[in-house]
Structure formats: structure tokens, C-alpha cells
Amino acid sequence: MGNTGPDNSQDRQATGIVLAGGGGSRLGLGPKALLPYRGRPLVETIAGNLLDGGCREVVVVLGAGAPHVAAAAELDRYRVIVNQDWHTGMGRSFLLGHQAADPGDHLLIALVDQPGLTPATVKRLLARHRPGRITAAAYRRRDGLDKGGDAELQRGHPLLIDASLRDAVCATVTGDAGARGFLRAHPELVDEVDCSDQSTGEDVDTPDQLHLLR
Q1: Can you give the pTM of this predicted structure?
Q2: Could you tell me which CATH number the domain at 13-213 has?
Q3: In the β-sheet with 134-145, what is the strand arrangement from edge to edge?
């Protein structure tokens, strides 16, 4: 899974991938990319925060309602591609983002429905990343305690995948699982970085989570 030549991973840059193809069926408000957040479509905020956080470029993968999203959101600063098979799950969007990114870059995978993602979170992951590994944002869970009585740390997004691991991760991507299968099979390659001071790391999946957009 690693490179056989000299390791120049520290010098590599990252391409941000925004998975923005979901139709938001559980919310019933149309494509999640167009959820209103601080006066603009949410996809603009997420993509902008990846760029402002240090990604070399950002690829936005649209899907449901792509023409409407492209018309309503200002995405000129980013590379926009469309997943015509978005209904099969975000795995296809993940693979399209990988294919669109410079093959020498790390991939920083973000979800469009995570309004708490900040440039500071992105900068932290990029700064903490170690060659040949996966660096994941993690957040303190409110519904669980660890052995020390503190809130339990739970892995979430964004997820920074080392350039040397991209092909191996993508070989496991299927349906709506994204990189989950690879992460479960290779926990020894994953570094979790506590980003609880930035947000709860929650996604907007259901109506009772709409408060996250305030």
C-alpha cells in the first residue's frame, strides 16, 4: 500500500473533495448542497472552508438537482463534477472525486452536510498528518463516556487520506460506505485528531438536526 521510492509525503499538497450529491430525502428539503447557511447555500461554505484551510484545490461532487445547485451556488473557485449515479450512494461520488484530483495529492474528504466544519479544522488535520497514514477529525460524544469519565472521542469527518493510500482505500469503496470499510480493516493506519473545540462534528441528516444550520 505504500510507495517504494523516497517518501516525499510531507511535501505533498491536498485536494479537498466535497461530497455534495445527496438528495436529502430524510430532510425533505431538496438537495443538501442547497441547505441555507448564513445566507448562502451550505455547499459554498464547506468548499470555501476547505480552500481557506489550506487545500490546494477543491473538487465539489454534485448529484441530486445538480443543475439547480450549480445555478444557485457560487462555485467558480472550485472544480465541479456531477455524479449521475448519486442515488446509489456517496461511494460513487468519492471515487469520482479521487479520479478528478491530482494523483500526487492527499485527499481531504468532507461532507456537504457538516456545517460545523471550519478552516481551523482543516488546518489542524493538514498539520498533524503523518506520511503513509489517514488523519481523521474526531469529536467528543455527548452520549458516551470513556473510562476516565470524559466524553468519548468519536471519529468523523473531514478525513485526510495519504496519497500513497488512495488506490487502496478506493478499492474498498462501495455503496454509501465511503472509506468506512478500509478504516475498519486498518485501524492501525488511522490517527484521530480531536477537533471538539471547533464543532460537534454532527451532520444534518434529520429535521431535528436543522438547528445546526443556525
Answers
A1: 0.90
A2: 3.90.550.10
A3: 79-82, 57-62, 14-20, 106-111, 151-161, 134-145, 190-194
